[in-house]
Amino acid sequence: MWKAGLKWMFLIIGTTIGAGYASGRELWQFFGHESGLAILLFVIFFSSSCGVIMKISRQKESTHYLPVLRDIVGGKLTGIYDLMIFLYLFTTTVVMIAGSGATGQAFNFSYWWGIGIMVIALLLLFLKDINGLLTINQFILPLLLGGLLFILLSFTIDQELELFSHWDEQRNWAAAFPFTALNILPLIAVLGAIGNKVKGSQEIWIACCGSGLVLGVISYVYNNSLIQIADELLLYEIPLFAILKGYPFPMFVFIGILLWFAIFTTAASGVLGIVTRIRDYFDQPLSLLVAVTLATMIPLSTFGFSTLINYIYPVYGILNLYVLTRLLLYPLWSRMEKKET
């Protein structure tokens, strides 16, 4: 039970902590000053939504997201949101690939070297189908989360920051809605692909509550750190490197490698959602579908990492608010629909 629950928890976190989140760019885009309550609301909304998705996925014993999506948004809107999820997964995976290029540049490598390494790693990962992704999440994510939290807490202590000051100033609370909505859509795709592997409700409870709490703690500490260096963030495409600027170079290298793995796990989750969906139309090996998908993404990564996040993420955060509303009210409207039938 615990082992399976933690496996799904790491899958959820690995899907969420990508280039945008781990770099700090996504958090700063939505939160910033006066966002403590927003982050608390995010934890509640995120855990609840993941629980609903996993419950439906388990009931349907799904192998891709379409049956789950149909149950969430209803038959009339399924086609629209099917296309939106596909486009979301495609564009955000492009962001991850661009993020790998930006990470390479931070170490004075060519942008294309960073992209090439990402593409090759994804191709190798999917030679083992979905099991490769689940295995790497269990090994990489504890290191990533521990390293990221260590740096953020060290920065907090070094700068003598107060984690719980200004709680009377929470005017940005509404940011919880688009931020949660942004991160929920890819989880429908990824968790919809593993419904036939989830065995019990206890696994779901562990996965959803655990992932919400972990992401909430890291988001709060991370956002608090970024507030202190707000004036410097315009100079960095990856805000995390602004926090690291006073640290020894080995620490910079270690966190840079962990950041790349965060980008990698989210890119892998995005590719998983895409190829499990299109496999219904193309009866081809998973590795071939992955190769073709990545080949179409590489040219789009030239738009740049921060540019893609600044324009794409807020738009999806707003468009996905309907899905979030359906998930949060799922127990209510599902009872109403049963009464009508």
From TrEMBL:
Keywords: Membrane, Transmembrane, Transmembrane helix. The chain crosses the membrane at residues 38-56, 77-98, 110-127, 139-157, 173-192, 204-222, 249-274, 286-305, 311-333. Signal peptide: none annotated. The keyword Chloroplast does not apply. It comes from the Bacteria. The keyword Signal does not apply. This is Membrane protein YkvI. It comes from Virgibacillus xinjiangensis.
